[in-house]
Amino acid sequence: MNFVQLIGHCSHFQIPERVAEQSLRTMKKSWKPSSPWLDRKVKRGFHGYPIATVAFYGPTAETATKIAVGIFKEENLEADPFERWFSQESDIRLDTVIGEQIAAFIKAQEVRSVVVTDGIIGCPHEEGIDYPEGKSCPQCPYWAGRDRWTLERIQ
């Protein structure tokens, strides 16, 4: 799956491709990676493929409990490899050990670009895997009826 499909698949909201593409273009670099190398890659912006995408998920828009990283070797290809990291104890964005694991994973892929979502973009549970397709996640009521890009109520 490509990045636009990936960010639409990893949460219970299915978003139109045009919305995901616009969000990709406007993502800010607000997360501060613990690795200086990764921090430089994020600040540089898009410099071609392969590209690493870093997306944050959590039960609310305040606390991230999952980070998903996909490597896209070329445009319109599936993310491969694709890895996830989880934390139940605290905000995973603050975990320096996991931050270093993510940096090592990305560095090993010899990426030219790194794109990071601006904040948390949805529930950490996956539709069709952790709960039925077309339903809201029963464990994350915050995201039910909420636009994950604007955080505004849509229902």
Any chance you could write out the topology, listing elements then pairs?
Elements: H1 3-9, H2 17-26, H3 36-44, E1 51-57, E2 66-72, E3 82-86, H4 96-108, E4 113-120
Parallel strand pairs: 1-4
Antiparallel strand pairs: 1-2, 2-3
Helix pairs in contact: 1-2
Give the structure's gist in a few sentences.
The protein is of the alpha+beta class and 155 residues long.
Description:
This protein has 155 residues and is α+β, with helices and mostly antiparallel strands. It has one domain. 25% of the residues lie in helices and 17% in strands. The chain is built from four helices and four strands; from the N terminus they run αααβββαβ. It has helices spanning 3-9, 17-26, 36-44, 96-108; strands spanning 51-57, 66-72, 82-86, 113-120. It has a four-stranded mixed sheet with strand order 3-2-1-4, with helices on both faces. The longest helix is centred in the middle third of the chain and has 13 residues, at 96-108. The chain is globular, with a radius of gyration of 15 Å. It starts with a helix and ends in a 35-residue tail after the last strand.
